[in-house]
Amino acid sequence: MLARLIFAAPLLLIAAPSFAQTAGTGDGPPKRVRSVITYGDEACPKQTDPDEIVVCAKGGDSPYRIPKQFREAAKEGPTAQSWTRRMEMVEEVNRAGLPNSCSPIGTGGQTGCNRQFIQQWYQDRLDRQTKAKSGQ
Fold it and tell me: Which residues contact 125 (CB under 8 A, 6 or more apart)?
């Protein structure tokens, strides 16, 4: 008998709220729930049927405007830059004076000038070869 009571108690706890909701009206839950979003100073519409529930929510100024939190312009300055761009700028500034930088500053700057001259020579040679092939 105690085992049956222990088994039946959770079922009564689950079913009790549904009995309480239908006990007062006798019909059950409302037949229609209408969700409405209002903009600006619009008033929430009234229910047209006793079996209807109207739920209203404020949608902001206008359905055709961008919300205020998104209207602000993007910030300028270092906080608006990505970390990748920041690191590129730091590397570019610190590049002067390092080997292969083609800079009069530092011990290895001249090696970068030779490297740039060689790269430029290869590019010119490639351009001449391309023109010669397309001209024939």
Answer: none
